[in-house]
Design brief:
Elements: H1 2-25, E1 37-38, E2 42-49, E3 55-61, E4 68-76, E5 85-92, E6 102-103, E7 113-120, E8 125-132, E9 140-149
Parallel strand pairs: 1-3
Antiparallel strand pairs: 2-9, 3-8, 4-7, 4-9, 5-6, 5-8
The protein binds calcium ion (2 copies).
Residues 84-86, 106-107, 113 line the site of one calcium ion.
Length: 151
């Protein structure tokens, strides 16, 4: 009886360990805001999400003295009728003032989610996040067309 209890304790401990592993194993590229990929003024990005918990972060800082206007278009390459990736952003006006995560309009599995002419004042940093909508994930490549301009 005692051996059985010890075995159960051991099995429980082992399964707890193996449950805690996957969360750490899901590590790809640019998964966190702090690891965001720095964008240039104009880029066509081609990446992929590899799990339902995967996300990719990007950032661009307005180092000029004039307001810039940002455009970003998210597109799933080879879309299907279910997989839906979303484009969100968080504008940091300064180190301590930011908008929090905001989502661009979701256009569905075959749509293009976009940020259009979004104002970025001098000194501000915009963070973009690409993630999959809950319950719709399958591994897909996607592209983001990014550019900043004057108006
Ligand atoms: Ca990632
Ligand atoms: Ca979407």
């Amino acid at each position: 009886m005692k051996i059985k209890q010890i075995l159960i304790t051991l099995i429980t401990a082992v399964s707890l360990l193996s449950y805690s592993q996957p969360a750490q194993a899901i590590q790809g590229f640019y998964d966190k805001k702090a690891d965001a990929k720095v964008l240039s003024d104009s880029e066509h990005i081609g990446f992929a999400l590899t799990s339902a918990d995967d996300a990719d972060w990007f950032k661009w800082t307005n180092n000029t003295t004039t307001t810039k206007y940002a455009n970003a278009v998210l597109n799933i390459i080879d879309p299907d009728s279910v997989t839906n990736y979303d484009l969100a952003f968080d504008m940091h006006y300064s180190q301590h003032i930011n908008t929090g995560l905001l989502y661009t309009h979701d256009t569905g599995p075959n749509g293009l989610d976009a940020l259009n002419f979004f104002q970025i004042p001098p000194g501000a940093t915009i963070y973009l996040k690409v993630l999959s909508k809950q319950g719709t994930f399958s591994p897909k490549s996607y592209s983001v067309r990014w550019s900043v301009q004057n108006v």
